[in-house]
Amino acid sequence: MATWFFMLILVLLMPLFMKGFGWMFMTNAPKDINTSFGYRTKRSMKNQDTWDFAHKHFGKAWFVCGIVLIPASLVLMFLVMGREADVIRTTGFIILGLQLFLMLGAILPTETALKNNFDEFGRPR
């Protein structure tokens, strides 16, 4: 049971992180363009408009993913409750891999939205 509980906590950390930071980026993104915190890509750091747009878009993607991943992760972990430790660990790591894929996958639609809404100099289209 300890293995299951440990893996449950692990698989809930990433969606909770995504939900929390997603909400923060949507509602209260870093005010100034910086190289230490926030959604930092070449395209997002062109100017303040691209910076704000990228944070709202990326934040919404993370927030929605977090909302969806929390119950999905819970359901999958409850399906292996009481099973052998190897099954629980394997399931947990598969869930973590899928979560990581979605977490990083939010970059592509954000960059596409930036490209569609701003030119290469950061001016609105």
Number of strands: 0
Distance between the termini: 55 Å
> How many distinct domains?
1
Oligomer: single chain
How many helices does DSSP assign?
A: 4
Helix content: over 70%
Calculate the mean pLDDT score and round it.
96
List the helices and strands in order. Answer: HHHH
> Compute the gyration radius: what is it?
17 Å
Q: Main beta sheet, described?
A: none
Poorly predicted segments: none
Structural classification: mainly alpha
Overall morphology: elongated
Beta-strand portion reads under 5%
Quick structural summary:
With 125 residues, this protein is mainly α.
Report on the structure:
This protein is an all-alpha fold and 125 residues long. It has one domain. Helix content is 72%, strand content 0%. It has four helices and no strands.
